[in-house]
Design goal:
394 residues; alpha/beta; OB fold (Dihydrolipoamide Acetyltransferase, E2P); Rossmann fold; Ribonucleotide Reductase Protein R1, domain 1; six-stranded mixed β-sheet; five-stranded mixed β-barrel; 13 strands; binds guanosine-5'-triphosphate; binds magnesium ion; binds zinc ion
Length: 394
Amino acid sequence: MSKRKAAHKEQQRQRWQEQRRARKTIRHNTAANQEKHRQDWQPLQPDEFGMVADRRIMPRDEEERRQALETEVGQPLPGRDAEQAWHDIAAESPFPLGVVIEVSRGLCRVMVGQERLLCDIRGALIAEGTGLVNVVAVGDRVLVRPLEAGHGLVETVLARRSGLVRPDPLYSHLKQIIAANVDQLLIVASWREPHLWLLMIDEYLIAAARNHLQAVICINKMDLAEDPAGVRTLLQPYEALGYPVLLTSVPAGLGLAGLHQALCGRTTVLAGLSGVGKSSLLMAIDPQLDLRTRTISRKFSEGRHTTTQAVMLPLSAGGYVVDTPGIREMGLAGLTPPDLLDHYPDIAALAARCRFSDCTHDHEPGCAVKAAAARHQLPAWRLENYQRLLAQMC
Ligand SMILES: Nc1nc2c(ncn2[C@@H]2O[C@H](COP(=O)(O)OP(=O)(O)OP(=O)(O)O)[C@@H](O)[C@H]2O)c(=O)[nH]1
Ligand SMILES: [Mg+2]
Ligand SMILES: [Zn+2]
């Protein structure tokens, strides 16, 4: 290509980019839109009864029916848990209560008692206007109309008590519910293969806090660590903030009893990169679970069994686990820089002593955060992670 042609092409590209930016600004960047986006991004807030009243996912007649029903049944008693509320609603309905254990392209698998039904989702239940991309998620409690031989129709999605939500990877202004009605998030990382990625753990911790879920950190593949004591020291800042840190190895059987104990009797969603060993860990603590794990063959690519969609499984000892495919991004949409500082309480405590109240802990004189990092009172990686996430927001 001649120089002139190349310059012209570059000019055209720049003009196109400018136009695109301008279009985006006009369409999306109004103050009202920003505020709406921020509100959309408020996590699911349980009410005083521990329920998230998201009536928007119900068809209109269902909402009216539910209101009539609630008046009939009477208002839920304070302290009554969500499980009881779901059962009460189901008892008044002609349809049985089920738990969604798998979702795939408009279909879902629902456990109704001991039976597994393959269900369509009622057409009236649409995600439009809810700010969500999916109507039904793994873990949802639903009312199901049983149809012929092993089939059913999801009539209603009952109010959720919690959920792990993230921005949709394709439409970042919309939310995707990865799993509903969960108690805790088990963040799984591996020491090596893939390498420990602390920034990702921080992002998951933020997601857990925004979704009001307890977080447990699990570092797997400890058999590949030369200095296990060093790993514990590295992760000490998380323990200091109150997060349980479990060090595990599937082949060495390390830490599996502790992991089992952490999951028993609760509903846990697992998250972490692909290949860290989520499915392997679950099968190691409960051999009854039948999960696909990756078996890497150097010569042939067949035999790779990675988890491709979220599945919910009951643990033999009580509780449920949700195995998910590797999730790379939890997203920070709707978070502001002051919100970010709330998620770094160790830095926030030091920041109170900075000379300037708007200190960015980057170049300012009299910065207590940088001083603490220089004295190794604050691990350098914590500050680095904070700065990186802050940079993503600006
Ligand atoms: N050395 C070692 N390898 C492990 C350990 N746990 C799992 N693996 C191996 O790591 C690979 C990936 O394990 P999976 O359980 O499929 O990982 P996953 O996190 O479920 O991956 P996705 O389903 O893709 O998200 C497999 O080859 C396992 O055998 C461990 O503790 N130590
Ligand atoms: Mg897996
Ligand atoms: Zn500072």
